[in-house]
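[Meeting: bench + compute handoff]

Bench side (C.D.) handed over the final construct sequence. Compute side (W.E.) agreed to return the predicted structure before the next meeting so the bench team could plan truncations. Sequence as handed over:
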Amino acid sequence: MPYGPIPSTAAPSKVPASRRPLTTAQPPPGLRRRAARALRHASPALLAYAAVRTLGLLVFVPWAHDERRSVRHLLMASWDCDWYLKIASNGYAHTLGTAYDANNLAFFPLYPLLVRAGDALLPGLPRGAAGLGVSLLCSFLAAWGVFAVGDRLYGRRAGIFLAMLWGSLPVALVQWMGYTESLFTALTAWSLYAVLSGRWLWAGSLAALAGLTRPTGVALAAAVSVTALLALRRGFSARPLLGALLAPLGWLTYVTWVGLRLGRWDGYFAVQKLWHNKWDGGVETVRRMQALFVTERPALFYAMVTAVLLGSVVLYVLSAADRQPLPLLLFTGLLLLIVLGSSGVYFPRARFLLPGFPLLLPLAAALARARTTVAATVLTAAAFGSAVFGGHMLLGWHGPP
């Protein structure tokens, strides 16, 4: 598999004629017309994604009412949602402090900035409504981007299944909560699609925004920058170079800003230590897995998280064997290294892997080749499993997702 963008002529049988690049002799249609055509092409994936996540709500909402729990609070203002809402309202801490799990500088700024903008544009909304609105919108942008990557690599059917699988992950309910996963996945999917299609400035800019959204934005930045620099081997061009330089700017800017705010070069990493986060190469992860299944009886949520982590490693091996494009393998590989190699808390790690949608490509491609009845059975089971696990995550598991 060559490094850099995948030419649109590499697999003509998988790319519909309506989506092949226009020749110079044919004037391109207007932006609105192209967007409408792309939306029509992606509409089955978006509708399928909406159906999967709506099923999750249809299971979760009556379950929450049965438990006499507030649906609005759980989706809009619980756990990390509350941290982001407080940052949007009051800003960031000025000092490091010594309390564990208490410094809000650990949370990156793009999502709370969008929440603040939503509150300013639509005053009078209930607390957290703007954040939930941002997540809902971004979840569909993410599903669209996920479909676009799958469609480009394996065809439309695989793209639709990929979007459905992403919406059917065990912790996918988080996609419709006041969390950053939907925003980050949207930026990641479209940045990777831009790399695959050779749009280096878009790829670098979106990666920079992702770097302002979550700490794991550094994995996307590295994937984009390395691929762009390798593309220069075929001949110098300013666009790949600019894309490579843009990609890490968001992550570096926030980490540098935290250091300046706290008056120490390692300020951000000092904050992370107060959240028990450091990279130990996976020692704590292995210890925790061993404790869960050897010396303890694991809770259902812990068992599910462990299954997701182990399954993700298997899917990465399958992705590498399938010779996925370099930027996808780089991103998911680095994401896995960060998540598995951290000594931080164990239970959110399935959520941390939500943006790693390229790991699902081997499953989506296999379902695309399978009979319709087999694919329908697998996807239906995944959707119902996600609905049940999502409800358990917020109602049965008494901790953050």
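W.E. noted at the follow-up: Confidence is low (pLDDT under 50) at residues 1-27. C.D. will use this when planning the next construct.
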